[in-house]
């Protein structure tokens, strides 16, 4: 049983004859008769009584009509619902990311999204470690992910730019960068292993050839910042995660450390997903473009 056959059946009911229905459908009458005949054979019953003055429904046809109408209406509603989602008139978009990006990078893009598509719902799911983020994308828990470049990723990946990693401590500091020699002798506020920034600090220590002298471990970037500003030890944090009022308590490293931020998914991005990626390219994100990466910077 085909959807078109149901439409043809209902058109005949509405217009009262095969001739009128065929004209309305822009279909040759023999083709219409052939389709209805195939439908009747499949159902095992005549749906119409044919006469010189037109057609009328048989008992089987009268029973069949409301069900055919319900199917056609349901498909029409489904098509309209999908069209509304594609156009951004309704629907949900699930964005997966890591916590520092959720608070430090995405707010401007999310605000632009809701200006443009106010009837949609954007659901933001954040993870403390990049490995958890990548696993969630592989398992299909979201429509797209925004975070560090995933290694050996088989789906589409687009670079958004690089976030700078800065050293926080008891300031205020002058403009000078933190040298590797200073970092070697400092006390450090490290992160718990399940927090992705633990891996980042270990990478930075390897890149700048120092071993952190750990005096505290925390599970959140905000906690690391607080302890660093109080003088417990230095902390390495994304620059975009530092509140404006605390900018005097952070400084870059020498050489600069930057981490690439990407948007990626399991399959080609379409509909709402592609629209959000487009917005990411329209707004000014608090990250560094590839063209603006400082000479000599260490990239991750």
What does this structure look like?
This protein is of the alpha/beta class and 300 residues long. The chain has three domains: 3-87, Winged helix-like DNA-binding domain superfamily/Winged helix DNA-binding domain (Arc Repressor Mutant, subunit A, Orthogonal Bundle); 92-160 and 261-299, 3-Layer(aba) Sandwich (D-Maltodextrin-Binding Protein, domain 2), CATH 3.40.190; 162-259, D-Maltodextrin-Binding Protein, domain 2. Helix content is 43%, strand content 24%. The protein has eleven helices and twelve strands. It has helices at residues 3-15, 18-25, 29-43, 59-87, 99-104, 107-116, 130-138, 180-185, 196-208, 221-229, 272-282, and strands spanning 48-51, 54-57, 92-98, 121-127, 144-148, 157-168, 178-179, 187-191, 213-218, 235-238, 250-264, 298-299. Strands 3, 4, 5, 6, 7, 10, 11 and 12 form an eight-stranded mixed beta sheet that branches. Strands 1-2 form a two-stranded antiparallel ribbon. Strands 8-9 form a two-stranded parallel sheet. Strand 8 (187-191), helix 9 (196-208) and strand 9 form a beta-alpha-beta unit. Helix 1 packs across helix 2 (18-25), helix 1 packs across helix 3 (29-43) and helix 1 (3-15) crosses helix 4. The longest helix is centred in the N-terminal third of the chain and has 29 residues, at 59-87. It starts with a helix and ends with a strand. The mean pLDDT is 92.
What brief labels describe this structure?
single chain, 300 residues, alpha/beta, Arc Repressor Mutant, subunit A, D-Maltodextrin-Binding Protein, domain 2, 8-stranded mixed sheet, two-stranded antiparallel ribbon, 11 helices, 43% helix, rod-shaped
């Amino acid at each position: 049983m085909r959807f078109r056959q149901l439409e043809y059946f209902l058109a005949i009911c509405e217009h009262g004859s095969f001739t009128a229905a065929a004209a309305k459908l822009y279909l040759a009458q023999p083709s219409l008769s052939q389709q209805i005949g195939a439908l009747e054979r499949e159902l095992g019953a005549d749906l119409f009584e044919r006469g010189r003055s037109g057609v009328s429904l048989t008992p089987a046809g009268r029973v069949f009509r409301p069900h055919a109408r319900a199917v056609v209406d349901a498909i029409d509603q489904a098509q309209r619902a999908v069209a509304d989602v594609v156009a951004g008139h309704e629907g949900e978009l699930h964005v997966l990311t890591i916590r520092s990006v959720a608070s430090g990078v995405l707010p401007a893009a999310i605000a632009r999204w809701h200006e443009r598509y106010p009837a949609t719902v954007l659901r933001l799911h954040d993870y403390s470690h990049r490995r958890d983020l990548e696993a969630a994308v592989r398992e299909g828990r979201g429509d797209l992910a925004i975070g560090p470049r995933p290694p050996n990723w088989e789906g589409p990946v687009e670079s958004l730019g690089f976030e700078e990693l800065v050293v926080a401590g008891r300031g205020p500091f002058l403009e000078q960068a933190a040298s590797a020699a200073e970092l070697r002798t400092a006390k450090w506020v490290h992160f718990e292993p399940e927090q992705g920034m633990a891996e980042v600090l270990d990478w930075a220590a390897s890149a700048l050839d120092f071993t952190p002298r750990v005096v505290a471990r925390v599970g959140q970037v905000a906690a690391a910042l607080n302890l660093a500003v109080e003088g417990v030890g230095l902390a390495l944090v994304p620059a975009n995660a530092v509140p404006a009022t605390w900018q005097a308590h952070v400084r870059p490293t020498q050489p600069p450390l930057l981490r690439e931020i990407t948007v990626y998914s399991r399959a080609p991005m379409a509909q709402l997903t592609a629209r959000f990626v487009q917005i990411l390219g329209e707004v000014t994100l608090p990250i560094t473009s590839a063209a603006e990466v400082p000479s000599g910077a260490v990239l991750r």
